[in-house]
Amino acid sequence: MTEDVRAEQSDHLEVQGLTVDFDGFKAVNNVDLTLLQGQLHFLIGPNGAGKTTLVDAITGLVRGTGLAQYRDRDLLSMRSHQITRLGVGRTFQTATVFEELSVLQNLDIAGGVHRSALGLLRARRGVPPYVEAALETVGLSHLRHVPAGILAHGQKQWLEIGMLLVQDAKVMLLDEPVAGMSAEEREETGNLLRRIGHERTIIVIEHDMDFVRNYADWVTVMHAGKVLTAGTVAQVQADERVQEVYLGRTAEAAAEELAAEEAGA
Ligand code: ADP
Ligand code: MG
Question: Which residue has a Cα nearest atom 17 of ligand 1?
Fold first, then answer.
């Protein structure tokens, strides 16, 4: 019983008092988060709220203070390649695939994180089963020999998620994966996240409330470096402070649109 509890605890990501200070400016300010396995967590909030910086700190790209505990390790004291090897992976707002290499080659390189040099040599003889599985899962089997550079925007994001699958990432932090996608691509992405989310801890950064509404199990709202509130979609939407933050944004966007229209007229 004690062991069961420990196994459960060690597989979720616990963030406490996470702070990222850029020369006195706290882009992330004392953030607490508990991210459970098997749930689709969404991290929302206006531009500049600190969402990307939070993910940067958890994945070792910027220095954070506080605690980010996963499998009894504090990620904040680890280098980014160690964090990847521990099973914590992320994607970026702009896709970072090797454009001139094929889909298959991109996946093979990503898989190298866990493979010995001998394994890499052996792998060249055929497609390893976990790469085949990742291709299937993200729906890119038929495009395996195509250079990643000619993939559609949505497909590049799916390839990146495939790269996390072959890395065996158990925690996936996805920075605006559906930005710029068509409605159809969004739906496919949401379903993909549901399929792979059962046995993983997935955190999705997203602005679009429709997407959040359709797929989120749990939502954390950030504003000015802090957690404004957290809860189910219904709870978060009913929160007046969230409406203020988002209405503020909408009013700003509307004013910009109007100004652009006037300038064009
Ligand atoms: P979000 O992803 O929520 O839009 P970011 O995490 O990118 O927000 O940025 C949060 C704040 O931190 C912004 O005000 C941004 O300008 C600032 N910021 C991000 N990176 C740096 C940096 N390297 N140095 C200084 N300020 C930064
Ligand atoms: Mg961002």
Answer: 27
Q: Is 64 in the pocket of ligand 1 (CB under 6 A)?
A: no
Q: Is 23 in the pocket of ligand 1 (CB under 6 A)?
A: no
CA distance 148 to 138: 14
User: Tens digit of pLDDT for each residue in 220-242?
Assistant: 999 999 999 999 999 998 888 88
Q: Is the CB of 35 under 6 A from ligand 1?
A: no
Parallel, antiparallel or unpaired: strands 40-44 and 218-223: parallel
Q: Which ligand is nearest to the CA of 56?
A: 1
The Cα-based distances of 104 to 88, 135, 210, 212, 220 in angstroms read: 22, 8, 33, 31, 35
CATH class of 3-87+170-264: alpha beta
User: Torsions phi, psi of 115, nearest 5?
Assistant: -115, 145
2 lines ligand 1 (CB under 6 A): no
Give the start-to-end residue ranges of the domains of the chain: 3-87+170-264, 95-169
Q: Which atom of ligand 1 is nearest to the CA of 47?
A: 4
User: How many angstroms does the Cα of residue 22 sit away from the middle of ligand 1?
Assistant: 9
Q: Are 147 and 102 in contact (CB under 8 A)?
A: yes
* CA atoms of 82 and 139, how far apart (whole Å): 29
pLDDT, tens digit, 9 for 90 and up, residues 154-211: 999 999 999 999 999 999 999 999 999 999 999 999 999 999 999 999 999 998 888 9
